[in-house]
Design goal:
The chain is an all-alpha fold. The protein has one domain. Helices cover 70% and strands 0% of the residues.
Length: 70
C-alpha cells in the first residue's frame, strides 16, 4: 500500500477526473503510475539505443563514401 499527500487543488482535480471516468481516485492514480512507468521504460530504451548509434555524418560525405557521387 502507498500513501501520498496531495495539495487541495490536485486532490480536487483528481476527484473530478475520477468522477468523469466513473471511477475512483485509486484507479486513476494507479493508471497514471503505470503509464508513467511504461513511458519511462520507453525513454530509457530510446536513450540506450541512441547511445549505441555511431556519430552522424553529413549526407554529402556519406554519399561519397558509398560511391554514390561519382
Amino acid at each position: 500500500m502507498l500513501a501520498i499527500r496531495l495539495d487541495k487543488k490536485l486532490e480536487r482535480d483528481l476527484d473530478l477526473l475520477a468522477k468523469a471516468r466513473g471511477s475512483n481516485r485509486s484507479v486513476v492514480v494507479r493508471e497514471a503510475i503505470i503509464r508513467y512507468l511504461e513511458d519511462d521504460e520507453d525513454f530509457q530504451l530510446a536513450k540506450k539505443s541512441l547511445s549505441k548509434m555511431s556519430s552522424s555524418k553529413p549526407l554529402k560525405q556519406l554519399r561519397e563514401e558509398l560511391g554514390l557521387d561519382g
